[in-house]
């Protein structure tokens, strides 16, 4: 999902504290698939890249790509002969096939890393096409004037049409076309679409700690379920796998205590971007993907 302009401005200040890699735990659940893959390519946006999670890679610096994101943790366990993590913060579906301009550089088209010998692909993208994280930011501002109402829902459903639902529906065929292209470029690969971790609790929230109006919490959570549901449906239609990270992350949302939550709030308490997975979240996703691969292989 998108990294805001504010994050770009503070990046220079934070990078000094995030360039030293920490010892990364090996995700459970992938043992059965270890050694089974020769070339693993990870595609995706910031929920894959891991902005501000130490240590941050420099290739390019503007992608805010961590060497402890879930693809990197998974690759440590799988030990493929070749591993390419080309995920990039801010990526949209178009950036899979075209260069992405980022701070101090450019990320090449992500699908350019796919070759006929690629035998594992993970992909997590479309959140930025829908604009989910910027929507959360505007909803946070709206909550100040009506903390117990649903100002965000009101704003996006003027006239009886939910504009955010429309965006998800419009993104669906583009996601389907992307999966078809991936299969064409890597015909032998196991392809897994990885869903987005739960951001909010089912109801009520924790305003003002996370400034989302009480009535908007269920609305936004429902939209995230719809987004993940779209990804699952497109994966099924394309004949590829889907990894559900939403359901296993109940009780791990932004309102939980440090050490429990897998996604940081608007004011992070661990090295990670606001409203993005932290290191614990990345470890959890790596384990879920590994478990899915074990199930496929068995």
UniProtKB/TrEMBL annotation:
One of its GO terms (molecular function) is triacylglycerol lipase activity. InterPro entries: SEST-like, SGNH_hydro, SGNH_hydro_sf. The keyword Signal applies. One of its GO terms (biological process) is triglyceride catabolic process. Residues 1-23 form the signal peptide. Pfam families: Lipase_GDSL_2. Keywords: Disulfide bond, Hydrolase, Signal. Disulfide bonds join 63-88, 139-152, 206-255. The active site is at 46 (nucleophile), 276. It comes from the Bacteria. Residues 42-283 form the SGNH hydrolase-type esterase domain. This is GDSL-like Lipase/Acylhydrolase family protein.
């Amino acid at each position: 999902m998108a990294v805001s302009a504010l994050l770009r401005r503070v990046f220079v200040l934070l990078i000094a504290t995030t360039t030293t890699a920490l010892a990364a735990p090996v995700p459970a659940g992938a043992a059965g698939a270890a050694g089974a893959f020769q070339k693993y390519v990870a595609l995706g946006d910031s929920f894959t890249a891991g902005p501000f999670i130490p240590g941050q890679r420099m290739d390019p610096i503007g992608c805010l790509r961590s060497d402890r994101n879930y693809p990197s943790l998974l690759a440590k366990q799988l030990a493929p002969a070749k591993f390419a993590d080309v995920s990039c913060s801010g990526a949209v579906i178009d950036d899979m096939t075209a260069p992405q301009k980022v701070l101090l550089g450019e990320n090449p088209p992500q699908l350019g890393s796919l070759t006929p010998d690629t035998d594992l692909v993970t992909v997590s993208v479309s959140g930025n096409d829908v604009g989910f994280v910027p929507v959360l930011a505007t909803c946070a501002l709206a909550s100040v004037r009506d903390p117990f109402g649903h100002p965000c829902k009101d704003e996006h459903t003027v006239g009886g049409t939910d504009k955010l639902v429309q965006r998800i529906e419009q993104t669906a065929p583009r996601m389907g076309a992307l999966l078809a292209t991936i299969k064409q470029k890597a015909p032998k690969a196991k392809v897994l679409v990885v869903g987005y971790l739960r951001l909010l609790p089912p109801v009520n929230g924790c305003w003002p700690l996370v400034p989302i109006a009480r009535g908007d919490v269920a609305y936004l959570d429902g939209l995230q379920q719809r987004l993940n549901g779209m990804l699952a449906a497109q994966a099924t239609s394309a004949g590829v796998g889907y990894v559900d990270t939403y359901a296993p992350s109940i009780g791990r949302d932004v309102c939980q205590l440090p050490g429990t939550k897998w996604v940081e709030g608007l004011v992070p308490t661990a090295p990670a971007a606001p409203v993005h997975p932290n290191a614990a979240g990345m470890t959890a996703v790596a384990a879920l993907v590994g478990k899915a691969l074990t199930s496929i292989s068995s």
